[in-house]
């Protein structure tokens, strides 16, 4: 039996193992903040705006709801749905009396949008508008901003003429009160009915997080309603700062727990855990909280660099004064429904040149990871092809065929069939070293330091993250 040791073969095997190992690390390492592509969803025309004071919303499959609020008749006022590369008016303001709200948009994966209009809440599926809650039904004189679940259920709170508050869900037109008859302190009433991020929040699965008053009648607490059961997430310091939101399993909140210090926390009804924030980072607006656990919000660093942040980074995704769309940003609005499970973020912005628009930030894979993935697959395929096509090692060759296998001329007595496979493979399959060399050039081509932002305009640049 022939036995040989080939240093090149061992080297190639080690390289293959190294690439496979690195490939696996790239596939299974935890997700981190990376580069984002920026897409313009809608932009104003002269004499019109896409209202910056109403934060847009995004579903997990990328549908976006936003409001058009023109200063003239150039753009029709109402609720728009962006889907498949275009935005369309689905609920004209004339159909509901005129858009009035403060970030009151929520959209699910079916494309159903819930929104507030004056003291009523509506939903729109396709272009069919349904009244979810209207003034005086029953005896309501005010409603909060709505949240919508995957099944079309809508959660909100309403206040009646006696200043008592009811937290309600409506599913297929059937209301269910999950908390009612709590008389809130004046400050808590104002917060609960006028600030995004402090009104009842509903997850895709139907969890409802809401502010309430404890058994002592004075201490505010954060509750979670799920499947007919209410859990207390945390008692809170009276009159403290508060933003909260829920995903399908947990509630994220920025507040001061009773007896604790102001901070960002996540709880599930059995325990709460602090979420460390980078030094100086302070949330100043609604939290958006997705199922993978990302928390995004409007924030600043020690009072400056106001913009959109995630809880794991002190560098904003986008901020005031950044260049955008041929101008710079004067105002940003990001709401409680502005982040989806894919990490996409939607926001509206007002620009220094007077224009405004709705924009989408989408995470893109690190080029190095993508190239390594492709390179690893190519190397695996090349190795498999080499093993499959390698000529059989012959230790005992019949006399008539020896000349063929020793690389000399074909003798008349040699069986051509014994030589053909080896001869063909010798010139049809590139040497494995050539494949490795080509793979090296491929990786060198694609593995470059990534730009943090990729914008769809050659004239646009965004700051490095």
Describe this protein's structure:
The chain is of the alpha+beta class and 465 residues long. It has 2 domains: 7-29 and 368-453; 40-363, Methylamine Dehydrogenase, Chain H (7 Propeller). 19% of the residues lie in helices and 37% in strands. The chain contains 7 helices and 31 strands. The protein has helices at residues 7-28, 93-96, 186-194, 367-389, 402-405, 416-428, 432-446, and strands at 36-43, 57-58, 64-68, 78-83, 86-92, 105-107, 113-117, 120-125, 128-133, 140-143, 147-148, 154-160, 164-171, 174-183, 201-202, 208-213, 220-226, 229-235, 243-246, 251-255, 263-267, 272-274, 281-289, 295-301, 304-310, 318-319, 323-324, 327-333, 345-351, 356-363, 453-455. The strands form 7 sheets. It has a 6-stranded mixed sheet, with no helix packed on it. Strands 10, 11, 12, 13 and 14 form a 5-stranded antiparallel sheet that branches. Strands 2-3-4-5 form a 4-stranded antiparallel sheet. A hairpin with a 5-residue loop joins strand 23 (281-289) and strand 24. The two termini are 61 Å apart. Mean pLDDT is 73; it is low at 1-33, 391-397, 400-430 and 446-465.
Total of DSSP H or I helical runs spanning 4+ residues: 7
CATH superfamily of the largest domain: Peptidase/esterase 'gauge' domain
Arrangement of strands in the largest sheet: 27-28-29-30-1-31
Assembly context of the chains = single chain
How large is the share of residues in beta strands? Answer: 35-45%
Shape: globular
Characterize the biggest β-sheet: 6 strands, mixed
Radius of gyration, whole Å: 31 Å
Distance between the termini: 61 Å
Q: What is the CATH first-level class name of the largest domain?
A: Mainly Beta
User: Judging by the overall fold, what is the CATH architecture of the largest domain?
Assistant: 7 Propeller
Given the helix and strand composition, which structural class is it? alpha+beta
Unreliable spans are 1-33, 391-397, 400-430, 446-465
Number of beta strands = 31
| Overall helicity | 10-25%
Q: Could you tell me the CATH topology label of the largest domain.
A: Methylamine Dehydrogenase, Chain H
The domain count comes to 2
How would you state the average pLDDT, rounded? 73
């Amino acid at each position: 039996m022939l036995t040989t040791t080939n240093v090149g073969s061992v080297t190639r095997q080690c390289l293959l193992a190294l690439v496979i190992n690195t490939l696996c690390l790239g596939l299974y390492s935890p997700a981190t903040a990376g580069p984002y592509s920026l897409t313009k969803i809608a932009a104003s025309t002269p004499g019109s705006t896409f209202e910056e004071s109403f934060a847009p919303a995004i579903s997990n499959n990328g549908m976006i709801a936003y409001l058009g609020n023109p200063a003239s008749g150039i753009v029709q006022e109402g609720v728009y749905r962006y889907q498949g590369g275009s935005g369309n008016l689905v609920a004209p303001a004339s159909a509901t009396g005129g858009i009035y709200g403060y970030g009151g948009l929520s959209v699910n994966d079916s494309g159903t949008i819930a929104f507030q209009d004056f003291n009523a809440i509506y939903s729109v599926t396709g272009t069919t508008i349904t009244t979810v809650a209207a003034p005086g039904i029953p005896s309501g004189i005010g409603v909060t901003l709505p949240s919508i679940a995957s099944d079309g259920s809508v959660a909100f709170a309403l206040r009646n003429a006696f200043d008592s508050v009811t937290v309600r869900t409506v599913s297929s037109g059937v209301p269910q009160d999950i908390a009612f008859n709590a008389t809130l302190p004046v400050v808590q009433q104002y917060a609960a009915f006028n600030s995004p991020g402090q009104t009842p929040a509903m997850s895709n699965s139907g969890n409802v997080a809401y502010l309430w008053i404890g058994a002592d009648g004075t201490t505010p607490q954060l509750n979670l309603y799920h499947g007919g059961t209410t859990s207390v997430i945390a008692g809170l310091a009276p009159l403290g700062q508060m933003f909260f939101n829920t995903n399908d399993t947990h509630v994220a909140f920025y507040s001061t727990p009773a007896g604790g210090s102001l901070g960002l926390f996540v709880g599930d009804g059995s325990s709460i855990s602090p979420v460390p924030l980078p030094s100086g980072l302070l949330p100043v607006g609604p939290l958006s909280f997705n199922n993978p656990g990302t928390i995004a919000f409007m924030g600043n660093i020690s009072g400056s660099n106001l913009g959109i942040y995630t809880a794991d980074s002190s560098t904003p995704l986008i901020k005031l004064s950044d260049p955008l769309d041929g101008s710079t940003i004067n105002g940003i609005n990001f709401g409680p429904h502005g982040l989806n499970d894919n990490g996409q973020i939607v926001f509206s912005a007002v620009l220094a040149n007077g224009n405004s628009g709705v924009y989408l930030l989408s995470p893109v894979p690190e080029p190095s990871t993508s190239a390594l993935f492709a390179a690893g697959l190519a190397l695996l395929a090349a190795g498999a092809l080499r093993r499959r096509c390698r000529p059989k090692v012959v230790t005992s060759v019949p006399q008539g065929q020896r000349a063929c296998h020793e690389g000399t001329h074909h003798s008349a007595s040699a069986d051509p069939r014994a030589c053909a496979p080896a001869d063909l493979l010798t010139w049809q399959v590139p040497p494995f070293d050539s494949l490795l060399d080509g793979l090296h050039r491929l990786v060198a081509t694609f593995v470059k330091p990534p730009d943090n932002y990729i914008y769809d305009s050659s004239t646009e640049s965004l700051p490095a993250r």
